[in-house]
Amino acid sequence: MKALDILGLQEILEESTAADQHFSSTLVNIGEQAVFECTPGVTPTPGPSSIHALRPGDIDVVAAIGDSITAGCGIDAIFVLGSLTNYRGKSWSIGGDGDLDGSLGNERVITIPNIIRKFHSWRETLYGYSTGTGLKDSPNANLNQAVLGSEADALLEQTKEVIEKMRSDANIDMDNHWKLLTILIGGNDMCGYCANKEAYSPENYKAHLKDVLDELKSNVTKMMINLVPMFTITPLRSVSKGRVCDVMQNILCGCGVDPQFANVIDQLATDYYEAMSDLANSGDYDSQNFTVVLQPSLYGYSPLHNRTTGETDKTIFAPDCFHPNRLGHELLAYIYWNTMVRYPVGMKPLQYPIYSELERQEFKYACPEEDHPYIWTNWNSNNTGNLTFTTTTTTTVSTTTLEEVTEGPDHTDLWVTIGCIIGVVGIFVVIGLICLAKKEMADDTERFFG
Question: Chain centroid to CA 57: how far?
Fold first, then answer.
């Protein structure tokens, strides 16, 4: 089309469309092959007497706080602008759309609530999960109070909103229902570090998390909190599908995709991990009816790649090459569940062995052990609180350190970011619509553009 050629955008659109078609064809991999072979069992009334004897089927309420990942941004997006849509019902840790394997005649959706439902054969009640699309204040968001663009300092407000929503929900018994809360935060903090290293320091990150845990401990009982460390964002620069992605990544997280800061951001991710680990293993949040557990397997996670060619698998990302898409969320949920259920505290891997499962094409949801049917905690794992680990940083020519980072452009303001996104992608939405109609109205379109 002449207009596209004149604008110099035809090649960009073709690059993006080809990548999206490829990614759409691979979305079914884990979802169609993962096998659920667990025996739900029957949970006795009135249920466990301790959080450390909690089984999956005992969980009554699920909740989550965090950023755009947990809000579900871009999960089913077709165009870049769709990455602003919050597909909360399909969010990895809190979504409740469909069911796990489609066996109930619904859409197949892999999420933590849908896995838990498989253990609820003796009842049909699980509260708190989000459905459909919408912002945090929409009724269907429920206890998914994650917000696009959030950083660690926003979690306390989200926490208070979760507590208030639980208290005001007639379906939730604050004193007797067992609750599971998932926290994933840190990506936007990493993106903002180059602009303000003091505001996004590991010390401030830890302080914000501590405020959240203190608030929950003071106001909620019978709750298990899973802290999920954020993986380093530096591999994002290898995800680009073309110039559209390059522009979007620089708008959303210029610091994270700049090679000169790769070592800095990788170290920051490690420091954030250590902050979470310190809090989870401090013993300050463990009691008979309350516990905090570190689920570390996403910390060592990076975009999947062909281990022979080294080529990054771009199929797990939304069209903005920044947020995980449907397959990405399925992977996050699968890895998170298996880490939580399969491994005792102190033995949880920093990188889930997904490659061996991919090579075998054998995916199984972890089941509680027969002689230990409980979700692993610090206490029932006999953990000393000392979790040692090693890290592998991204190869780079940079020698910049945390102390050497100087302030750069600030990409962290949410409204500025949204404005930039709309400005950059608006023209591509129009172009996309034109291309979709191309086969039927090619002649008319050609005449229209002269």
Answer: 23
pLDDT in tens, 373-395: 999 999 999 754 433 333 333 32
**Is residue 68 flagged as an active site residue?**
yes
The catalytic position among 97, 99, 189, 258 is 189
Per annotation, catalytic residue among 323, 329, 381, 411: 323
Q: How many CB atoms lie within 10 A of CB 39?
A: 10
The total number of structural domains that make up the chain? 1
pLDDT digits (tens, 9 = 90+) for 209-247: 999 999 999 999 999 999 999 988 888 888 876 788 888
- Say whether 245 sits in a helix, a strand or coil: helix
Return the DSSP state at 34: -
Structure confidence at residue 42 as a pLDDT band (50, 70, 90): low
Least confident residue range of 34-38, 114-118, 230-234, 397-401: 397-401
Structural domain for 281, as ranges: 2-448
**Residue 194 maps to which CATH number?**
3.40.50.1110
Among candidate residues 58, 60, 68, 93, the one labeled active-site is 68
| Nearest CA-CA partner of 220 in 31, 65, 34, 113 | 65
Amino acid letter, residue 392? T
Residue 16's CB is within 10 A of a number of other CB atoms, namely: 22
Question: Does 189 participate in catalysis according to the annotation?
Answer: yes
